[in-house]
Design brief:
Layout: H1 12-29, H2 40-64, H3 73-108, E1 114-117, E2 122-125, H4 126-141, H5 144-158, H6 167-209, H7 215-241, H8 245-261
Antiparallel strand pairs: 1-2
Helix pairs in contact: 1-2, 1-3, 2-5, 3-4, 3-5, 3-6, 3-8, 5-8, 6-7, 6-8
Length: 264
């Protein structure tokens, strides 16, 4: 017997409510969609559209699972966690770029050069803003937004709405992604950091050899110049490493969902 996808079946409203929680979890953290410049009305419209599009899959999974799902605070939170997990893997890419920008700003002496971030409405180092936009551009060029939506649709088939969720195990896996965020950020900033470190050593040797030279006047422009030059040379190489992101994203999401839904 084929699972029912009748929109007028008894569990339709409950399934739609739980699906909207799952979609909302994705929109809370997903790059671009979670940005403050995106109007709330547009986010709400996107939530409704995605919920309607995924509803047939949700109804099929709920019917195949037996009883209709029930809407409770616990099930709504569980579905939000599933959607959050799908978006978190993509957010790590952009977050790592922001961490790299902060590190570069400190090492190059540009941490005082601040810019208003339209996404957060806070002042951030200008290099952090640049690296974040670079990561977003790479994310879009790799069809990251499409991959996220495909992953969300796959979770509806793989983990029918309303099923049990191990929130503690899933939360632990999500927290463990924080270490990956810093590792990727360090990898992003490594070429520039190494070049600036070498220049600092050279300037230190020069200061000992020529003590009459005002190193404060020399060091700042040299650090900034070498840092920007190295960044310009390294960006194409860094961009090629991001080509591996889709596979890494799939692995991250699969690991979190395995922890969340375990034996479903």
């Amino acid at each position: 017997m084929m699972p029912s996808t009748d929109p007028f079946s008894p569990g339709t409203l409950a399934t739609a409510a739980l699906l909207s929680a799952r979609v909302g979890g994705l929109l809370l953290v997903a790059p671009i969609f979670s940005g403050r410049p995106v109007p709330y009305m547009l986010r709400a419209a996107l939530l409704v559209v995605l919920t309607v599009l995924l509803l047939p899959l949700g109804l099929a999974g709920a019917t195949a699972g037996g009883a209709a799902p029930s809407v409770t605070p616990a099930t709504l939170m569980a579905e939000t966690l599933v959607g959050f997990a799908v978006g978190l893997g993509a957010a790590v890419l952009v977050g790592a770029a922001e961490v790299a920008g902060d590190l570069l700003s400190i090492h190059m002496g540009l941490s005082g050069a601040m810019l208003l971030d339209p996404m957060t409405q806070h002042s951030v180092p200008i290099l952090s803003e640049f690296t974040r936009f670079f990561a977003v551009a790479v994310f879009l060029s790799l069809n990251g937004h499409v991959l996220m939506l495909e992953a969300l649709a796959a979770t509806v088939e793989w983990a029918p709405v309303g099923g049990p969720v191990d929130g503690a195990a899933g939360a632990w896996e999500m927290v463990s992604l924080g270490s990956r965020l810093f590792v990727h950020g360090l990898q992003f900033a490594a070429p520039v950091t190494a070049a600036v470190l070498v220049s600092n050593v050279a300037l230190g040797i020069l200061a000992r050899a020529v003590p009459q030279m005002n190193m404060l006047m020399v060091a700042f422009p040299v650090q900034i110049g070498i840092g920007l030059l190295t960044l310009a040379v390294a960006l194409p190489l860094i961009g090629t490493t991001f080509l591996l992101w889709p596979d890494a994203y799939e692995a991250m999401v699969t690991r979190i969902l395995d922890a969340l839904i375990g034996g479903r």
